[in-house]
Hints:
Layout: H1 3-19, H2 21-28, H3 30-41, H4 46-79, H5 81-85, H6 92-121, H7 130-151, H8 158-163, H9 165-168, H10 170-175, H11 187-194, H12 197-210, H13 216-238
Helix pairs in contact: 1-6, 3-4, 3-6, 4-6, 4-7, 4-12, 6-7, 6-13, 7-12, 7-13, 12-13
Amino acid sequence: MSLRITFITAGRILRQLLNDRRTVVLILAVPSLMIALISAIMDAAPDVFDSVGLILLAFFPFMMMFMITSITLLRERTGGTLERLMTTPTGKLDLVGGYAIAFGVAAASQTVIAASVAYLFLGLETAGPAWAVFLIAVVSSLFGMALGLFVSAFATTEFQAIQFMPVFVVPQLLLCGLIWPRDQMAGWLQGVSDALPITYAVKALTEVQTNPEITAAMWRDLSIVAAAALVATVLGAATLRRRTN
């Protein structure tokens, strides 16, 4: 792995994102607008918004990075860019590291804007520090990036890449505790929920929401999300093939 090639790759991906204004708006503006909409819907129940808005601060980066990474990498696969890169000294770790840096920067920017809007203008309150919410959101986004990298290998069109969302994204939304408390779900659904990484991101956020100090449980739950991101990254890297002819 070459740090120089990794940062060159990250710069190239960031330039591609910045040149696509629709993607920039999707990453930076849409999450804040959606959270503001949820806040308006729950205007009469600010305590409920504190829980829901906090979860969305982590879920939106995960969902956005999954969608954008899968589509972006699919374009590179089908357009021949990835194949050309794999004939150069660029290695798998350089590509994966470049994607992680580029989309990590995008996710961090998204989280800063969305969290600023939620805390400063929408009245979101947490007992714990805002930086912990930021950290959990970024780790969740990296998991989304790694998952998008992996599933892009199984799609041939952008529409097919989006079709993976009901398989990999929607169940995490439905079973993480946002729609309905996990302890009130059927037993087998709780078991499925326990196997989904975003569930642990939500549990980590709950620790931040209810405890003024950073807890060991938060670090444990966050480490599970980070481990899932690492596994997905390894699986995604395995789908990258270097030409030998």
